[in-house]
Each structure stands twice: as C-alpha cells, then as structure tokens.
Amino acid sequence: MVKARYFLALADSGTVTAAATQLGITQPALSRQLRRFEKELDLELFARAGSALVLTDAAHALIPTCRRLLAESARAGQAVDALRSGNVAALRVAATPTTISTLLAPFIEAAGSSVPLLTTFPVSHYEVFEALEGTADLVIAPIPPGPEVASLPLGSVPVRAWMPSTHPLALECAGSAAVEAERLLKERLALPTRRSVSRGVLDSFIGRAGLSLGSHVECDDTATLSALARSGQAVALMTELQPARLVGFDVVDGGKSLDGVPLVAAWSPGHYAREEIAQIARRFRSFIVGSLR
After folding, report:
1. Mean pLDDT to the nearest integer, 15-33
2. H helices, E strands: number in the chain
3. pLDDT tens figures, 42-89
4. With CB atoms counted within 10 Å of each terminal CB, which end of the chain scores lower, N or C?
C-alpha cells in the first residue's frame, strides 16, 4: 500500500521532486520505491522525457485501481478502529453539489454531534454510485440504485419557484401556494443547467404542458440562483428547502403539478457501519420530510 501511495503522489503532483516533498521523504528514497513498485508489478510505469519522469499508458490505467486499493485500506482501518472503540467516528457522503448545499449541509448542521462526523464530496448524478467503490460510505442519489447495494428511498424534493415576497408575481399569487406555469414563464427565470436532474424534471413538465421557456439564465450553483432571486433579477426554479428571504410557490398547469426530484440513500450492505449508516439515512429522510411541512 505504501508503494501505491507513493505512485499516486507522483501521478497527482507531476514530478518526483514535488511528490517527495508532499510525502516528506527524500527524492532518492522515493525513486527507489517507485522502481521497486514497477519491478513488483512487472509493468513499465515510467518513461523519461528529457530530465522529467512521465507516466506510461499502463501507469495511467493503473491509477483508478490504486485509488480504490487505498480507499479500501483506509476503510479497513476505520472499521478496525470502530470495532475496537464501539463507535463510528466519521463517515463520508457523496452527492451532487446541489444535494450537498441544499440538503446535506443543513442536515449536518441540525444533527450536530448526535451523528458521526459527516463530510461530503461532490459527484455527478451519473457517477454517484461509483463513489461507493471509492471513498464514500454513503451516497445520496436522484436515480435508483441497483440491487447490489442497500438503499432507502428518501422521498421527493419539490422544484419550486422562489422570489421575494415583494415581487409582483408573489403579490399576484398572494393567498395561493401555487403559480400557473404559463404565467411563470412570462418572468425572467434563473434555472439549473441541463446537467441537473431538476432541470430535466422542469423541461419535461413544460414540454407536456405545450409551453416553452422564455427569458432565462442558467447556473448550477444554488447560492447564485438564490442571490438572483433575492436581488429581484429573476425568479429562481430550484430544490432549495427554504432559502432566506424568499417565498416559494408550487408550479402547476391546470390540475397537474411540477414533479419533484426523487432521492435515495445507498450504501454497501457489507459496510462495517451499515447499521449506523441506515440510521443516518432514516434521520435524513425525517429531516427532509420535516423541512417540507
């Protein structure tokens, strides 16, 4: 594992000198370890380009495997520590950037020390389940998982139209919890890009209603969408639970409502902390439900 860590340090830093500094060892010592790693694998991993050491195609192909091995080693160490102490100290959660900022971060703040220390890292919704093969203990995804993982449906987070209470459209809809899509589309909108699941939900709804988008801007950062709404420059369509200083309206077309984004929690059924993870998933589901009331 040590040699794999040294190999990844070189791959990430680009030079032996930088990798040795990062690892806190001398350059000759690192070079010796890298040569031994190459010999053990019986693969040509490095080539010279002038005075620089560059990775071969075989080395580039080996990088994902080494990352998985190190992640599994780290997870095994955490499992041993948890078994010795009887406590799960920390867990890592993978999710889309929007899910992290609008749901996971508020949950972590609300839960406080009543759950293990939770840290997050962003992934695309297409790659979220692959994170379980790397460093993620738990993933929150907008798409259903396969049967090989344990999972818990978390419900659906609505895509709503957000604006200040003083916005003309908010005043027009005062006393109602919803805004008609046809009327909403006359406003300038701030929308997630088409990389977002919520945008796909919105586009499908508009298409089924026989309508089309008018003036709009696109951004995948929820904080920016909220800022545009608070500044009065656009009405934001997003899955934010309760952005500050904004009021939300459901989007409808006659008797039909804009769907929300379904979420599911998933984890490895063989994870050493599977019971704690399942409990966190249930608490996260309750948090979402409670926040939507």
Report:
1. 85
2. 11, 14
3. 888 888 776 667 788 888 888 888 877 777 666 666 655 554 555 667
4. C
pLDDT tens, residue by residue, 104-158: 999 999 999 999 999 999 998 888 888 887 778 999 999 889 899 999 999 999 9
Q: What are phi and psi of 189, to 5 degrees?
A: -115, 150
Parallel/antiparallel/unpaired status of strands 90-95 and 117-122:
parallel
- State both tokens at 274: 């599977």
Name which of 191, 145, 197, 189 is nearest 169 in CA terms: 189
**Cα 207 from Cα 78, distance rounded (Å):** 49
- Cβ atoms < 10 Å from Cβ of 101: 18
Q: Return the pLDDT at 87.
A: 62
Task: In whole angstroms, give the CA distance from residue 290 to residue 174.
Answer: 24
DSSP lists the bridge partners of residue 163 as 247
Contacts of 39 (CB under 8 A, 6+ apart): none
Token output for 129: 């389940």
pTM of the model: 0.71
Residues 207 and 259: beta-carbon distance below 8 Å: no
CA atoms within 13 A on the CB side of 185: 16
Integer-rounded Cα radius of gyration of the chain: 24
Number of Cβ within 10 Å of residue 79's Cβ equals 14
Q: What tokens appear for 283 in the block?
A: 């608490």
